[in-house]
Amino acid sequence: MSIQVFGTPVSRGVAIGRAVLVASSRVDVAHYFVPAERVEQEIERLRQARNVVSAELAALKRDMPQDAPPELSALLDVHQMLLHDETMTAATRQWVVERHYNAEWALSAQLEVLARQFDEMDDEYLRERKADVEQLAERLLRCLARTKPGQSATPDLDVMRMRDFGGEDPLVLVANDVAPADMIQFKRSVFTGFVTDVGGRTSHTAIVARSLDIPAVVGAREASRLIRQDDWLVIDGDAGVVIVNPSPIVLEEYRFRQRQSELERARLNRLRHTPAVTLDGQPVELLANIELPGDSAGALEAGAVGVGLFRSEFLFMNRGGDLPGEDEQFLAYRDAVVSMQGLPVTIRTVDIGADKPLDRMSLQELRHEHALNPALGLRAIRWSLAEPDMFRQQLRAILRASAFGKVRILVPMVAHVGEIRMTLEALERARQQLDDAGCAHGEVEIGAMIEVPAAALMIGRFLDHFDFVSIGTNDLIQYTLAIDRSDDAVSHLFDPWHPAVLRLIADTIAKANARGKGVSVCGEMAGDAAFTDLLLAMGLRSFSMHPARIASIKQRVLRADTRRLAAGVDAVLNAEDPALEAARLFSTGLVH
């Protein structure tokens, strides 16, 4: 019988194959009490398991394939940090000492405590870090299962690698969750896609799926219980649907879609080095968003003409609260600049806070810290200005990197003219300090992120101080509509087509163009082809997005006539349903 399982779409495309179920290690955890004389022996088992898992993670990171996405290295670092966190290790030992639980039972008991704490967190990003703790517990339990009391554990680096099941049928992985360490082998395995019971759009599983460009559906609840071994599955990564044992007609329809998608991808790939110029001769800048210096190679390969957003906060995260120094930052920024081979690199100053907390705190402290609304707290430029020594170190590092190529500085979440003044003063002091020390640095342009309504409404004043602006649509939508995207009760109201949002974007673009100042969009809308025609019609000529989206956006640009598109802007902005009106005007060709 054919059934459908619904989840969250996190990576586009269609995957078809036979189901391979991976069972959870916690299903058959032994529960027994240990006598007092064996308590130390049981604690030693826990200690050995931790050391072995630490060695396994280190070996996986060391032997990582060259084509593995850079996100995987960072995720393995997160698991190393959690492995040695006292909230995990010390509390687990307490279960053994006080309750005389065996090691496996103690670990499972502490996992339940942590899981409840994560479930109660308000922030979506932090809630989904529960999956990292669960994945780490799975690895520890597997290690404990390989040993009995009194034995020594040894690393098993093959235990997490994907089996090659062979055969002619393509295979699809079905699991409660897929750990980042598992994903290292995923790209070269026989699996064409995966389905997980847990996870969300910002989970590590979703991040890696997008970076590997693998069709995936996460958060499918009971998928691993409803799906049986060897069932035929269709993963619709666009709709977030898993079809179990589809009818021959449905299966053939999806196979046709799969073939069309592969042909389309190959055709788009040929556009990589074609200049992005509209039909009426308007050049359009297609830039890449990156997180780490190593991402520059992927940006160039995708045909990006520069980096429109280097998220520098990723250098600050997953370090146990040990912030990177000036020299470390300089080397990272320099590497990105040199890798881009003379193309511009826009480095955003650290945007810590909200969904990107520093890990100076323990898990319990994080829970307390994020009980309030972090999106409205000390984050982004507010945090930088509150940490002037750290901020000047970052500015000096960026300025030093500018001696190696074209660098621009982007300031996040600016809302007050006072913040602008303080930022410019900090930049001038950093320049002076470099001059006094005889350190080389180049000229940099400085710009502002327009991501709060106050900044969009004050755009005229802001342009007096900045060389360019970049519209961060994700936060602009959230703050304009007062929608917390992490709150499931209202997240459906997060609407990029809302007329108020579109008017703020259109006004920002128009005023920047009128002043001859650069303006780009670097949020999700930039990489969404549904908005390309409208943004071009508004006068936007610079888009910054994930490198994987560049080819499809370039295709829309090459087919666009901006003079004709501009005629439909007012109709879309004044419509009760802008999305419907844009589809009518742009997609059906009434404007074209």
Automatic annotation (TrEMBL):
<feature type="domain" description="PEP-utilising enzyme mobile">
    <location>
        <begin position="168"/>
        <end position="240"/>
    </location>
</feature>
<keyword id="KW-0808">Transferase</keyword>
<dbReference type="InterPro" id="IPR006318">
    <property type="entry name" value="PTS_EI-like"/>
</dbReference>
<feature type="binding site">
    <location>
        <position position="311"/>
    </location>
    <ligand>
        <name>phosphoenolpyruvate</name>
    </ligand>
</feature>
<dbReference type="InterPro" id="IPR023151">
    <property type="entry name" value="PEP_util_CS"/>
</dbReference>
<keyword id="KW-0175">Coiled coil</keyword>
<feature type="binding site">
    <location>
        <position position="348"/>
    </location>
    <ligand>
        <name>phosphoenolpyruvate</name>
    </ligand>
</feature>
<feature type="binding site">
    <location>
        <begin position="474"/>
        <end position="475"/>
    </location>
    <ligand>
        <name>phosphoenolpyruvate</name>
    </ligand>
</feature>
<dbReference type="InterPro" id="IPR050499">
    <property type="entry name" value="PEP-utilizing_PTS_enzyme"/>
</dbReference>
<feature type="binding site">
    <location>
        <position position="451"/>
    </location>
    <ligand>
        <name>Mg(2+)</name>
    </ligand>
</feature>
<dbReference type="GO" id="GO:0046872">
    <property type="term" value="F:metal ion binding"/>
</dbReference>
<dbReference type="InterPro" id="IPR036637">
    <property type="entry name" value="Phosphohistidine_dom_sf"/>
</dbReference>
<keyword id="KW-0963">Cytoplasm</keyword>
<comment type="similarity">
    <text>Belongs to the PEP-utilizing enzyme family.</text>
</comment>
<feature type="active site" description="Proton donor">
    <location>
        <position position="522"/>
    </location>
</feature>
<dbReference type="Pfam" id="PF05524">
    <property type="entry name" value="PEP-utilisers_N"/>
</dbReference>
<keyword id="KW-0460">Magnesium</keyword>
<dbReference type="InterPro" id="IPR008279">
    <property type="entry name" value="PEP-util_enz_mobile_dom"/>
</dbReference>
<feature type="coiled-coil region">
    <location>
        <begin position="36"/>
        <end position="63"/>
    </location>
</feature>
<feature type="active site" description="Tele-phosphohistidine intermediate">
    <location>
        <position position="204"/>
    </location>
</feature>
<dbReference type="Pfam" id="PF00391">
    <property type="entry name" value="PEP-utilizers"/>
</dbReference>
<feature type="binding site">
    <location>
        <position position="485"/>
    </location>
    <ligand>
        <name>phosphoenolpyruvate</name>
    </ligand>
</feature>
<keyword id="KW-0598">Phosphotransferase system</keyword>
<keyword id="KW-0813">Transport</keyword>
<dbReference type="InterPro" id="IPR008731">
    <property type="entry name" value="PTS_EIN"/>
</dbReference>
<keyword id="KW-0762">Sugar transport</keyword>
<dbReference type="GO" id="GO:0016301">
    <property type="term" value="F:kinase activity"/>
</dbReference>
<dbReference type="InterPro" id="IPR000121">
    <property type="entry name" value="PEP_util_C"/>
</dbReference>
<dbReference type="GO" id="GO:0008965">
    <property type="term" value="F:phosphoenolpyruvate-protein phosphotransferase activity"/>
</dbReference>
<dbReference type="InterPro" id="IPR036618">
    <property type="entry name" value="PtsI_HPr-bd_sf"/>
</dbReference>
<dbReference type="InterPro" id="IPR018274">
    <property type="entry name" value="PEP_util_AS"/>
</dbReference>
<protein>
    <recommendedName>
        <fullName>Phosphoenolpyruvate-protein phosphotransferase</fullName>
        <ecNumber>2.7.3.9</ecNumber>
    </recommendedName>
</protein>
<dbReference type="InterPro" id="IPR040442">
    <property type="entry name" value="Pyrv_kinase-like_dom_sf"/>
</dbReference>
<dbReference type="Pfam" id="PF02896">
    <property type="entry name" value="PEP-utilizers_C"/>
</dbReference>
<feature type="binding site">
    <location>
        <position position="475"/>
    </location>
    <ligand>
        <name>Mg(2+)</name>
    </ligand>
</feature>
<feature type="domain" description="Phosphotransferase system enzyme I N-terminal">
    <location>
        <begin position="7"/>
        <end position="129"/>
    </location>
</feature>
<keyword id="KW-0418">Kinase</keyword>
<dbReference type="GO" id="GO:0005737">
    <property type="term" value="C:cytoplasm"/>
</dbReference>
<dbReference type="InterPro" id="IPR015813">
    <property type="entry name" value="Pyrv/PenolPyrv_kinase-like_dom"/>
</dbReference>
<feature type="domain" description="PEP-utilising enzyme C-terminal">
    <location>
        <begin position="266"/>
        <end position="560"/>
    </location>
</feature>
<keyword id="KW-0479">Metal-binding</keyword>
<keyword id="KW-0670">Pyruvate</keyword>
